[in-house]
Design a protein that fits this description.
The complex is a heterodimer of chains A (500) and B (788). Chain A is an alpha/beta fold. A six-stranded parallel β-sheet of chain A has the order 2-1-3-4-5-6. Chain A has a five-stranded parallel β-sheet with strand order 9-8-7-10-11, sandwiched between helices. Chain A has a four-stranded antiparallel β-sheet with strand order 14-15-17-16. In chain A, α3 runs parallel beside α16. The relative contact order of chain A is 0.12. By secondary structure, chain B is of the alpha+beta class. In chain B, strands 22, 23, 24, 25, 26, 27, 30, 31 and 32 form a nine-stranded mixed β-sheet that branches. A five-stranded mixed β-sheet of chain B has the order 14-13-15-20-17. In chain B, strands 16-21-18-19-34 form a five-stranded mixed β-sheet. In chain B, α6 packs across α7 and α20 packs across α21. Classes of the chains: A alpha/beta (500), B alpha+beta (788).
Amino acid sequence: MKLCIVIPRDEWRATAGVRIRYDRLVEPLRARGIEMELRSIDAFRANAASVADVFLISKCYDARSVALARLLTQSGRPVGIDFFDDYFSQTTDARFVHLRNWLRELRPYLSFALCSTPKMKAQIEPIVDGLSVQVINDPMAGLDTAALGKTLSRKLAETKRTHRLKLGWFGIGDNPHFQVGLDDVFAYADALTTLRNAGYQVELSMLTNTRALTPARLERLSRLPITPHIEEWSETAEARLTRDSLVCLLPVNAQGFSTVKSLNRAITALVGGAQVLSLGFPLYEPLSRHIYGSVAELMADLSAGRIRHSKGKLDDLARTLSEIGSADREADTVASVLKAAQPVPVAKAGVGVVLHGVQSTVAVQKGVQRLGCVSALSPLTAGKLAADVVPRFDIGGVVLEITERAAKHVSENYRDRLREIENRNGVLIYDLRLDPNEVAVSHEVPEQTRPPFMTRDFARYGRDMRLTERVLAQVFGDDVAVIRSEVRSPYHTAEGSHAR
Amino acid sequence: MNDASPLTPAEFDAAWYLETYPDVALTGLSPQDHFERFGRRMGRARSAVEAQAAYVEPARVISPDALASEFGRGEVTLPPPPAPVFPSAVIDVTTPPRPESAGDAPERAPSMGQISIKVADFEIARVVDPSDLWSLAGPLSALRRVCLGGEGDALSIEGAGLTPQELEEMQAARPCARVAGGFTEGLTAVSNMWFATEADLRVYFAAEAEEAEADGRVLRVFQASSSAPAQFTQIASEALSGHAPWFFDVPLNDPLMPLVFEVSNAMGITQELAVIPFPSLLDGGLHSAERVAFQRAKTGIEEVWRVTDGLLFELSEVSEKVKPTVSAIKVQLAGATGSEPIFRPHVRAWLASLFGLSVRALAEDAPDIGQQSLTDQLSSNDGLSAYAKARAGRRVSSGHELHLAANAVPSLGALVSVRLRVPEGQGALTGSFVVADAVSKRSRWVVSLPANAPDVWSELQGLAPVAPRLQAAPDAVKTPLSAPYATTPIPLAIAFAQPEAGHDAQLLYPRAPDAPGSLFGAASPQMAHATDLLIDLRSDADPTQMLEAAAAQTDIAWQTVTFATAHTLSPELQAAYASVLGDHVREVIFSTEPLKGLLDQAAGTSPYVMALAPDIILHDVRSVSALHDIAATDTTIAAVGCAVVQEQMFKKQTAIRVASAGVFPMGLSLSSGPGLTFAEPDATNALPNSVYPVVAANLRAALVRREAITATRQRRADLGAFDAEDIQFGLDAHVEGYTSFAATAVPVLTTKAARPRDEIDPLGLAYLGAVDWAALLSKVTVLRELRG
């Protein structure tokens, strides 16, 4: 059996998430007869089903993954989703409408779902409409107890000798929606004051992404009680930081997005040779025997000349890590989930038509076209997309410009009425006119303004999108599936909201 | 002795000097060189003869004991000070004082002075003469009463024959002596202090001085921690510089715990002493916005001292009979992330150690594991020292609880006040609060809400502003008190808002469009709300988009639709507009009555009229239904207005801002006699996603109770219609016993540019004279913009 994990782009292979969650399962899965491949979503074509037997969508939050899932399901392949982050359970938050819509559109094609923590399962399962979510703990890497023991002892001795306490923080510093990362460091900065006052010369090193270093955050970094040394994150730098720091500071806030996270960061720090100082929400509680929950505990140990994560407790740590996430055990679970996965039946056999809303992207447009879908503009689309279908409405009906590749999917009822109007860079363009007696365009549908005004778009969004969907279904046949592409909130078209 | 002319050998006894001042040998300098460079400035004698001449007669002073117990028996002679043989402090001659950096200052000489002021065993000041204590009485009083928490007895004065309490009692004539001591003038005048980082104070001295004046003087700063408020340590020291500007950085143990500043002379004798009981009042501190709210002058450290003195004065009222008001702090956890200041251990430890207050969750049932962890963290006093844990909840008070939003901290005023009370018969009181920037701590607003919570807040949970509430416990003290007690004259809390107004999506949809239920989460009504529609078409603008959005409103049955026009519209236009609303409308009327005000043209018989301007877009189909939900909570609500959000083009992008969130009283005009002025500030940071009483709802998008229109009709007939019809209606309705509300929880959109309004009470003395202002202001939300 072959498992293909669908990732958003090739660069994502280098992230800690992939390294920790998937790379460690490659060999154990192979031992169970399952080959694993990671593939960027843009590498798929219309023959996507030939790539693997089972597919797992990971962090691909736009219409491309919906179009791909539908294509695979039509070909009899089971498709699953791996929930890395919880952008879905905040059901009243207007910032995530497009992500909830994405999940709603994807849901009919899903056979199974995975996530990394029981807390994530508890939060996600109620909103995925009967889909069972299986917890796959992040598998643990092997522990070189001899080397790690030496590192830990060396750092303790060095700290005692120099009275310099090397403190580290690493991670993604920002999130477009939640205050996490560096914002957590700022919120828990009082711990830095306590450390500073404890009689040690504290040196703080931080690794993060450059995007997070906005002027506002740089100002707040400069106001930390300990002046930090900041470098851009890389896997190598992270290994160096955990090796060199006596303690890694891991503050976690109590919002839902943060409380469902895995134990990865704490484990990375421990395995890298650092003590962990966990502050705020007790996310790392399963590791409590090996980490510190307060500055006072850490200081008490240092005063007594000892550390909690130490040479003598590494066997215990190895057992704990194995209990949390043994690669073999997790591979067993993955294997059983994959072997049990059955493709869901697809209600509509026609071509997928991706309808671009106000905010769609060229990447989505090209991606869905590569998958064989028809890409259609709405009257609200703001970007310049080379779509296959461009409708122009007026009270007298609608005229559709249709490319050659989309024309072959036009319903037989209308195919004869396609009229070739130009050859655009080697692509034949047709038009098709629907008169008022064929389509009910009862209102004015103006062209999108540039720049788009939310004020106007909100008022017309539901009505114009629904009208366009109706026209597309009419022209391409009732068995097409119209997939909406919107990468920004809170545009929404569900019945009962913006109806008419 | 102080002349600077070169010494002849006959004038200087090198052997005596070397023997008398043993530190001289350590410097490697010749005795005469040492005297020229240091001894002269330190006031040292150059020979035994000069030392004898400098001997001071015993001072004849009134003994503190005489004052306390033997008043009227005469003067008491104190023993003379010791012979002027001063062991010198060790001076590092290789490291002269640096004007702009902190450095180690000499330790205080071990045996100087007669009178030692100590906290526990730690000496924070030393004076020679008991009379010197008077200038320290203010700071020492603050130290004893506030800074030591429950350890006030740890302060002692050794060698003066009186206790700190007795010293304080002797200050009865001026019970509120300044905490600033001598740090307000001369060389030691502090020009400003602020938080350079989260835990470093930067002190700025601007006074220039003669070098001789500064020489040998040392500034020391002491602070205790919340885990042991009586265990002071020296956290910074530096030789004073006379060179301005001089900045002195103080690394704090804790940004909230009190500080003691002391300047001693070269002999280790305290020259000045100041206590900063509340460093968080300084710029960048947690309570800096509160200071700005109280501030009279625009800037300056003087305001810090003045506000501090005021807070201490309030605490000085505490006695056996008069107790502080607040007994406990409870936090509303809805929306909390745990990153807010109130959850920080050092904040809770400070509240416990200094005030004996505990912080708990308002509701024990948490909706998710994150909030449950916060509840547990608070109830277990997680992160607090043993001392703070023991002190938490031990305050002897009048038994009132202070309830806060999660993004707020209690104000210092609320913590020290003995005057706050919930009036008899009322269970709770809504208080005013300061809004500050969550990042910079800069002040933004003071928000004062009516003391009696409107019914809308109890019936529609989650729509109350983030206002603090004072809750009377069943056994709260109700005995009459000696001081004049107000209800909520001071801000009870500081609420921290993010500097940005928030994500556009959250501003435009406080509840997501795909969220289940109505705008406020309730199930849809059994029957659609019968509502008349009043459209202000007097400007000839095209209302088509507005009408389309109005027609799409859910749970609304439009009855009579009135187009108020300036002139008769063509039949084609009338038909076009009527057709947009569809067939569901019972009746459409085009009214052209220029002499009538807008509201008086509203035809129909429905209990509510929805007034809309043609440029308004009801982008959320739940908006009008939500206005009904609010209006239904109280029959005295005259109107509920939407927040009007304007979208503008800015550098080829569009940006949104709140053009109106209701009409507020904002100032006073004397242009033709005293009159209140009204404006529509962008109040989204102060009042996000909430409903609150205002002077008037903006009639560009408001649901109006028809009874209120009827009740105020005669006034409009008598006085005529004014340009600012919304304000006129709001004031008329107020006189008739109604209240208007505005709702940032129900935003609507427009692209029409709105001019900032600054309207004067249109009716002037006709009925809302100055004597009536208090009644109006007590019923509406009052905003005061702060520029911290």
